Amino acid sequence: MTIRSKASSKSTAVGILYRGHKFTVHKTRGNWHYITDTATGERGWVSGTYVYRQVYMCLD
């Protein structure tokens, strides 16, 4: 899944969150989460569509 600079699918990609990566959620805006990937330290927005909310892990 793509990590984006803003909470929009049209915003610039800043990284990739791979399946099984866990992350920390800092805030939520609608169906978007501002996260830090615990494996890489990358920060940005990801769509909640692809997130397993209980564990905060990438499903795609």
Task: Please give a handful of descriptors for the protein shown.
mainly beta, 48% strand, 60 residues, single chain, two-stranded antiparallel sheet, 0% helix, three-stranded antiparallel β-sheet, 7 strands
Q: Helix count?
A: 0
Major beta sheet, strand line-up: 3-4-5
Name the poorly predicted regions: none
Order of helices and strands: EEEEEEE
According to DSSP, the number of beta strands is 7
Portion of residues in beta strands equals over 45%
The rounded Rg comes to 10 Å
Round the mean pLDDT to the nearest integer and report it: 87
Q: What percentage of residues falls in helices of 4 or more residues? A: under 10%
The largest sheet is: 3 strands, antiparallel
Give the termini distance in whole angstroms.
6 Å
Structural class: mainly beta
Global geometry: globular
Short recap of the structure:
By secondary structure, the protein is mainly β. Helices cover 0% and strands 48% of the residues.
Description:
It is a single chain. With 60 residues, the protein is mainly β. 0% of the residues lie in helices and 48% in strands. It is built from no helices and 7 strands. The protein has a 3-stranded antiparallel beta sheet, with no helix packed on it. A two-stranded antiparallel sheet has the order 1-2. β1 (2-4) and β2 (13-16) form a beta hairpin. The chain is globular. The chain starts with a strand and ends with a strand. The mean pLDDT is 87.
